[in-house]
Amino acid sequence: MYQIYPRSFSEGTLVGISSRLDYLQWLGVDALWLSPIFLSPMADGGYDVADYCAIDPQFGTLADFDALLSEVHARGMRLLLDWVPNHTSDQHPWFRESRRDRVNAKADWYVWRDQPTNNWLASFPRGEKAWAFDEQRGQYYLRCFLKEQPDLNWDNPEVVAAMLDTLRFWLDRGVDGFRMDVVHLLGKDLNLNDPPICEERVWGHVPYNDQPTTHQHLRTIRSLLDEYSALAVGEVYLLDEQAMTTYHGAGDELHLCFNFRFLWAPFEADELRSRIARTIEVLRDGGAWPTWVLSNHDVPRHRQRYGGDELHARMAAIMLLTLPGTPFLYQGEELGLVDAKIAPADMIDPGGRDGCRAPIPWNEVARQREHPNSILAFYQRLLRLRRATPALHAAGIDNDSFRLFDGSPGLLAWERSDGDAHWFTYINPSDEPQVCSAAMQGATIVVCTDEALEGTMVGAEMPAGVAWVAHNSGTM
Length: 476
Ligand code: NOJ
Prior knowledge:
Radius of gyration: 23 Å
Largest sheet: 8 strands, parallel
CATH topology of the largest domain: TIM Barrel
CATH architecture of the largest domain: Alpha-Beta Barrel
Number of strands: 20
Strand order of the largest sheet: 11-10-9-5-2-1-13-12
Distance between the termini: 23 Å
Number of domains: 2
CATH superfamily of the largest domain: Glycosidases
Bound molecules: 1-deoxynojirimycin
Shape: globular
Number of helices: 15
């Protein structure tokens, strides 16, 4: 899957995106996820929706959208939209009505109280209370993000019905699924306080935003999606693999959940190994399918987080594209981009995330396409290999199909099997050579960060600062 942040992808429009589909097809991605394109005052880059069933004019028209969708489908790709169910814009007609007084038809569509009933803090601006006072209605409303993003009241069945209608609108037009914004927040227990920040709080689940009613809502949403065979990918920002995996339900909630604990792991073999092991363990027990994502529009780009050099970015690409599960690429990572440097006066995002949202440099794309050794060509080769190799795109996470090697410290390695075909990924980010396990010796290196090693056989030792994918039998 390939994430597009529409404002900065190509001309900032849907027509611009359509004009790049040949590139995306050449790159070899299967599906596109567009960050929000709905009508919005853009207080939070479109995650503040004023009409879920209209395209914001800055991106184009509904006709442009329909054209994009059919061009995506004509290329055999799928299109996912970004659905923002936890909150609307304060400019949404629902909120404008709701804030008018305490008796209007939408009075209970948002979370209103005479006083803040808990100590919750908003995500941004950091440190502000999650309750904002509204002069007009003379009450406080809950807003877990900006004050321009009031939280919807999902305990109100009318809200649930209205939000399902917004999904139906796009499903009827033919979209293939949705990325669902902060879905773990839908159910809320306002009586719970936010616990103090501590190690467990940071990496564990936050009880006030991980409530049983959320699962009920997800089951309702899933039954609607099932009518259309559409996909639900959830932004479940819980930083704990066990908590995350409960959002798949018994196969009746989300199809896929983003794995943020993995995203935040340093690029270091031992930590990555334990994150991967933990992810596979909990998902295997729950019968669910993993996702792997390193960059998106909310976090510094991973090349930057990993120290900035291209070698680590290439190693990360090998990891991302050969793990079992669905990988997500964020626009521009295939070019090895780091964050853009943006002067404080030019920042427009209230969360300070402008650096990873800078425009895609299309001249750089053209330059890298000409060079078979570019990082772009490297991504393309990996994607092509992945598509052509069932062991890499279809083999599951059961013990017969996926084996993570305990290995020596400093070496991250696994094997994926499909019948007689065995594929090995070895990543050695350390400064020391590593010993290769007997199982992989004799395998042929197919893609490697050191291209001189491609086509050679794996020996007893692996050099420092190298990653490769190798296979030892079966068909490619
Ligand atoms: C998560 C989105 O990815 C982020 O960009 C946004 O600011 C928040 N949710 C609020 O919608």
